[in-house]
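Hi U.,

Before I forget, here's the chain from the pilot set. I'm dumping it here mostly so it's searchable later in email.
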Amino acid sequence: MLFNSVHFLFFFPIVVGIYYLLPYKIRNYWLLVASYYFYMCWNAKYLLLLLFSTTVTFVSGLAVERIKQMDLEERLCRRYKKMCVATSFILNLSILFFFKYMNFGMESLNQILEKFHIVLNTPRFDFLLPVGISFYTFQALGYTVDVYRDQIYAEKNFFRYALFVSFFPQLVAGPIERSRNLLKQLAEQRKASFDNFRDGILLMLWGYFLKVVLADRIAIFVDTAYGDIETYTGTYLLIATMLFAIQIYCDFSGYSVIAMGTAKILGIDLMENFSSPYLSESVAEFWRRWHISLSGWFKDYLYIPLGGNRKGKKRKYINLLITFGVSGLWHGANWTYVVWGFLNGIFQIIGDLLLPLKRRAVVLLDIKTNSLSHKMMKTVATFLLVDFTWIFFRASSIRESLRIIKRIVTVQNPWILLDGSLYTCGLDQKNFQLMIWGIILLMTADVCKYKGIKLRKVIAEQDYWAQCFLVVVFSIGILLFGIWGIGYDAANFIYFQF
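Structure:
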């Protein structure tokens, strides 16, 4: 069930209406039923995988808590707790590997063996990737580690914990919530609130704008150019690559914002997953603002346990590369994602190595680091570096990525910016101009967020009639300018494939 489908537009009001009519004690049970139904709409049999991950991590949490209460010496206590956590990780990651990486691993092994003239006949498993498996697996594993680290107590109510793992607004594409945030809220009584309804609706509308007005419109241009790189070369591919950076941002942040809005209406606050990432002044800052829940997960559960930056610069850089390499692989079973991850890590390492040189240049050239021009230069440079890595993320193979880069660099056709040729790449002039105005609106909203201006707070300070008027106008605008398929064929979200 997609957020931008008619099915969801009927499903969600029914869930909310029944939720607030029910007594407090059984509301979570209703949300659990609704969440499981939501997931079963994708593929009912894969609910068993969700239940398996839920049960394993729930039991491991209880086991860790039980070991803490036993009269054991510290060494044995730590050892037994690690065994519980390790078992949880092995079982969950084995399922994730089998469904997501088995074919990729076999193909990669065959390619290596072919270099030595060894032919290995391995079977290919033909099954659909369970939607959201990477997200709910990481969320459940994070809970296990949090219990091990004494950051939370093990949850003793299985149904509440099952809701934590399967909460439908963020089940299939995040944000990857922390147990100490979401579990705590699920244990509290939540009342219907006008403020929550207003904020939730505004968040959902903004998310729908990002998805159906911007992301799906940009996708038409990008898919056309990347789908025929022999015809659309040079500036076409350059523009498409820059637009893809906006597309994936609008698509993924759109989902996250809709998730935040639906949860808000139910009285639950989800973490913010994006914070004006393309206004970052370095690649390192970009990753503090992009997919915040995943970046934080890898930082807390992989980078820091590896040693973080506590064991010297050389070890720090190795840990950084490992973290971003694994992060790339998390996104998909393809070497393009691994290269994408490594490039983001390498750019951060280069930035750190050049830091003394940059500081010296600031002093010698008397550069005003707080000036708008200097900040804009750093922001543009960061965007170009990040956008370069998106080529590998978008392309189907490393070879295709290199072909795209070659065609961008070697083919010179800047005149298409002026002669109307851009309007032949999937979008006519009207839709192309509408896309530009949408991007300007997005940039304006991001600048406000970057400056600490909370637009929802500004709207909340207006009269009720003005708030309702804005909601109606924005809703009509989305309906009029959104990209709707034939027979309302709702477009999927990019991150559903991960």
